[in-house]
Each structure stands twice: as structure tokens, then as C-alpha cells.
Recover the amino acids of this structure.
């Protein structure tokens, strides 16, 4: 084999390796998760963000993993096409975020009851109400600084942005309820939870996660969905003005 | 072929003296510069007695290393200039047959340096009170006081929380410490291995699940410090950090009492696992409940306290 042929072969092989590496990074790490843009949906210094957590998801690879979903801005939460299987969303800086989380997953006793305190929200409280099914309230609206996960099975997961000192337990429908089995969930027992917090006055990326070890089948419940973007870990991008 | 004479012993001594005279003022200047200009600014600072000790260690090491480094540089530069190849000089250098005096000097000097560093390093590893390192559940090197503020450091993916057993076992995501108070850290983890590293405090201790790793520090200066995880622990390892503060004892008391009162009022304090040498979240005897095993949950060996819902009492989910 001549020297020019060898050189060309080497360059082609090197380029192929680079292309494969770029594809893997782009496709598996960042390319498949869309970011839901709530920054454009803000008005009057506020923005309404809606999430749901489900006992399973509609992915082809990990359908049995517990997962969060993000709703398209202004959409109907009781329509499946309103939901996007991602945990990335963007909000404006220096804005009040009115967060609504629909909890369709069952309860999980918390590992550390410390996380049952509501911390970092406006007023240090959150409001929630359990539903038997769509628009069928099971009990009153509770406005509370804690959610009793130690002697009542009331907590499904948590929503936490540690760098903003925001830690909120997320309510679940009661343990005896027959949970939604088709994700994204639009029917079945659920809990609606609402709280507000303020975004910082500068842009940046803020990771959020669940602190209830809910990765069933993994060591200490901390693997799988707990460590994977798009499931129980996500990122809030604050868009600077 | 050019003609030259072999180097005489007098030439060697002359070169040696020159090198020494160039090196000596540089070494003295470097050490003075390190001691007076660099030392006060070396990491990790002087926020605790442990940090101060580590800063001293680094300064001493730098003062020992600087003359050695300068000697190598001076010799190198001298050789490049004085013994450089000159035009028309094609002769080999003189053969070297060994020099007992130089060999003895070299072995003695390096042995003294290495043994000195061994003794110095060993002593500095244990004073004061373990030098801020995790000493395991049964520390050997302890501070000379029984007036200790205990702080349990709990690592989990991906946050540290801090429990203060002398304040009813209250827990916080913030680490606030009083100035002038000897602190006893009990470092553990709820899941994988983490590492508690508030580097301005001069403390670094592994957080292993089920293990109580004890470290000591005595805050001396007011201010803020950074707590980082120093053990690769998952996707958000890089984001596992927060900030702590050293405050006056009065401010600390007010802060701790306020959190204790809030958690007591909310019922959280009573529901937290009782403080123990190893942190086991499933041991909450004050609840007066029997553990049950929950299928599908691998954490804590699958054991949790049963829900009142499961016993048929719908209860009120916001009341303790």
C-alpha cells in the first residue's frame, strides 16, 4: 500500500471515529431532550409552569422508570398531547414561578423525613389537594409548611432546586388508589400541588431533582431514573433579561 | 583536533564555590519571600486551627523545596553558560571516576531531608486533633476539651444536610458554626460514598454509608466557606456544593434555636431518626411503630414504617 493511500485511509478512519463520537454525544446526552420554553410565556412578572410525575413513562427503552413530564405552556393538562417527556424547561430571570405539579405516582416513605418540610417557597408553604379522578376532589385544599410522609403515606417525590434552597415534597394520591398506568397520565387518582418561588436576577442553569430515592430496583433506590435527565433529574434554565 | 588540558580539582572547587555563591542569596531571598509574602495567603487560610496548621505545613514544604529547586535551576543555567560548547572545541569531557566526598554529602543531605520530612509530616498529620482528616468512628487524636459542638454531616445524592444533636437533633441544609467553639463532625452517607470537604475549614472526611467518620475543627475567623463533595458520586457530583458560615456564638445560638423551634412546631423534629453514631433513617423508635418490608424498594434493605393509610386510617396528610 502506497504512502498516500495509507495517509488517506488513516484520515478517513480518524474522521469516522470523530463523527461517531460527536453523534453519540449529541444524540444520547443532549440531542433527545427538548427544553420547554416558559420564558416566552411569562407576563406581569410571573410565569405558570406545570409538571407531572408518573409511575411509568412512554419511552421505548425504560418504560418502567418513574418520571417527570413538562407541560407545554398554556396547554390542557388533561390532554396527553400537552405533555412532553423531558425535564428541561426555561423561565425568565427575576420572575415569580407559579409551579403546579400533578402527582400521579403512589407514595414512597421518605428516607429522611427532613425533606418533608417545604423550604424556599413564597411564604414557606405549598397547597395541595388529592383527587380520586379528573375533577373529583377527594378532600379539601391543604395549605401547609410540611407534608406528612412519616406517619401518612402522602408523599410521592420531592421537587428540589438545591442551589436556590428550594425543597418541596410532592403529594401523591393515597396508597390504596389504583394508579394511572398510561403515561403521560391524564386520568386516574392524582394530587395537585401548587407553590411559588422567585428566580434569581441573573441567568444560569439550575439543576433540580427528587430527594426520595425512587429508583426501584437500584441500590438504595438512587440509581436509574434518579440519575437520569428526563426522568427524576432535570434542569431549569433561567434566561437573563 | 584541538588541544586542551584535563580539569583540575581546583577548577571543580572554583565552579562549586561559584554555584554556591549564586545559589545562596537566591535561596535565602526565596525563603524570606515565601515566609513573609506568600505564607499568609496560602490555602486553605486560617479560618480554623486545622486550616492554620495546614497552611503552616504548606509554607514549610515550600521553604524546603525552594532551595532545592533553585539549586537545580542555578546549576542548569551555570552549566549552559560556562560549559557550553565553543567553536573548535571537539574534545570530550573528562571521565568521572566517582567522588567519595560528593557521594557522602549527597546521601547525607538527602537522608536528612527525607527523614526530616517524615518526622515533620507524621507529626503534622496528627496535630491538632487529627489535622482535620476523618479518623473513622474511634478517633485517636482528639482535642483537649469536652466542650464539643457535635455536627452530623449527612451526604446523599446530591446534597449535604447537617444535624445538630445538641439542639434536639434539628437538621438544616446550611452549615453554620460558632467562632471559637471546638466542633466534632460525624460524617456519613445515606447512599453512595461522598466526601465532606469544607476546604477553608481544613477538614476533609469521606462520607461512607453506615460509617461514622469523625473529624475535628475549631473555627477561628468569621466568614463564609464552601462545602464540596470530593468523591465522584454521580451525574450531579459537580453541583454537590453549598456555602457555610462561621458566626459569633450569639448569632449561632439564635440561628440554631430558631430552626429547632420551627422543626419542633412542624412535627419534623420528632419524626427525624434519633441521633446515633451511624445514621440509620429507619430507626425512629419515638414513632412507636413496627417496621415493614416494602416490595420493590431496595433502599434501607426495603424496610420502612407503615402508612396509616395502609392500616385503614385515612388520616390527615398534613398533620403529624
Amino acid at each position: 500500500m502506497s504512502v498516500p493511500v495509507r495517509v488517506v485511509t488513516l484520515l478517513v478512519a480518524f474522521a469516522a471515529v470523530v463523527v461517531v463520537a460527536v453523534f453519540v454525544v449529541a444524540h444520547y446526552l443532549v440531542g433527545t431532550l427538548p427544553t420547554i420554553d416558559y420564558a416566552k410565556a411569562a407576563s406581569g412578572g410571573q410565569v405558570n409552569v406545570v409538571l407531572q410525575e408518573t409511575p411509568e413513562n412512554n419511552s421505548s427503552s425504560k418504560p418502567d422508570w418513574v418520571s417527570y413530564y413538562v407541560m407545554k405552556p398554556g396547554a390542557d393538562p388533561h390532554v396527553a398531547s400537552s405533555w412532553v417527556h423531558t425535564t428541561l424547561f426555561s423561565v425568565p430571570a427575576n420572575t415569580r414561578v407559579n409551579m403546579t405539579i400533578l402527582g400521579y405516582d403512589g407514595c414512597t416513605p421518605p428516607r429522611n423525613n427532613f425533606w418533608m418540610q417545604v423550604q424556599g417557597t413564597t411564604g414557606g408553604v405549598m397547597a395541595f389537594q388529592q383527587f380520586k379522578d379528573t375533577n373529583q376532589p377527594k378532600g379539601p385544599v391543604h395549605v401547609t409548611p410540611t407534608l406528612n410522609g412519616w406517619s401518612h403515606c402522602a408523599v410521592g417525590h420531592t421537587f428540589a432546586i438545591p442551589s436556590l434552597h428550594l425543597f418541596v415534597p410532592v403529594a401523591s394520591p393515597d396508597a390504596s388508589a389504583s394508579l394511572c398506568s398510561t403515561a403521560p397520565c391524564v386520568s386516574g387518582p392524582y394530587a395537585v400541588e401548587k407553590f411559588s418561588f422567585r428566580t434569581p436576577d441573573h441567568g444560569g442553569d439550575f439543576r433540580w431533582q427528587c430527594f426520595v430515592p425512587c429508583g426501584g430496583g437500584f441500590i438504595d433506590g438512587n440509581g436509574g431514573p434518579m440519575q437520569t435527565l428526563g426522568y427524576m433529574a432535570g434542569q431549569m434554565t433561567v434566561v437573563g433579561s | 583536533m584541538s588541544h586542551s588540558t584535563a580539569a583540575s580539582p581546583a577548577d571543580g572547587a572554583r565552579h562549586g564555590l561559584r554555584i554556591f555563591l549564586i545559589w545562596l542569596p537566591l535561596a535565602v531571598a526565596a525563603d524570606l519571600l515565601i515566609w513573609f509574602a506568600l505564607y499568609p495567603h496560602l490555602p486553605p487560610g486560617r479560618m480554623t486551627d486545622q486550616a492554620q496548621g495546614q497552611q503552616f505545613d504548606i509554607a514549610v514544604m515550600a521553604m524546603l523545596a525552594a532551595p532545592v529547586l533553585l539549586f537545580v535551576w542555578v546549576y542548569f543555567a551555570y552549566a549552559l553558560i560556562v560549559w557550553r560548547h565553543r567553536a573548535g572545541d571537539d574534545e570530550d569531557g573528562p571521565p568521572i571516576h566517582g567522588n567519595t566526598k560528593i557521594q557522602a554529602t549527597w546521601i547525607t543531605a538527602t537522608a536528612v531531608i527525607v527523614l526530616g520530612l517524615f518526622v515533620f509530616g507524621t507529626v503534622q498529620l496528627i496535630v491538632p486533633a487529627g489535622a482535620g482528616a476523618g479518623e473513622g468512628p474511634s478517633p485517636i487524636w482528639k482535642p483537649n476539651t469536652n466542650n464539643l459542638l457535635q455536627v452530623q454531616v449527612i451526604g446523599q445524592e446530591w446534597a449535604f444536610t447537617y444535624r445538630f444533636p445538641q439542639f434536639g437533633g434539628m437538621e438544616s441544609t446550611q452549615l453554620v458554626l460558632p467562632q471559637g467553639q471546638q466542633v466534632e463532625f460525624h460524617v456519613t452517607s445515606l447512599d453512595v460514598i461522598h466526601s465532606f470537604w469544607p476546604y477553608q475549614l481544613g477538614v476533609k472526611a469521606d462520607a461512607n454509608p453506615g460509617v461514622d467518620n469523625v473529624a475535628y475543627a475549631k473555627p477561628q475567623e468569621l466568614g463564609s466557606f464552601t462545602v464540596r463533595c470530593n468523591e465522584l458520586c454521580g451525574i450531579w457530583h459537580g453541583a454537590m456544593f453549598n456555602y457555610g458560615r462561621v458566626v459569633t456564638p450569639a448569632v449561632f445560638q439564635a440561628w440554631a434555636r430558631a430552626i429547632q423551634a420551627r422543626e419542633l412546631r412542624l412535627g419534623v423534629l420528632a419524626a427525624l431518626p434519633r441521633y446515633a453514631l451511624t445514621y440509620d433513617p429507619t430507626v425512629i423508635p419515638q414513632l412507636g411503630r413496627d417496621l415493614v418490608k416494602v416490595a420493590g424498594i431496595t433502599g434501607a434493605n426495603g424496610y420502612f414504617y407503615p402508612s396509616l393509610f395502609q392500616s385503614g386510617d385515612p388520616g390527615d396528610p398534613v398533620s403529624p
Summary: The domain at 35-239 of chain A is CATH 2.60.40.420 (Immunoglobulin-like).
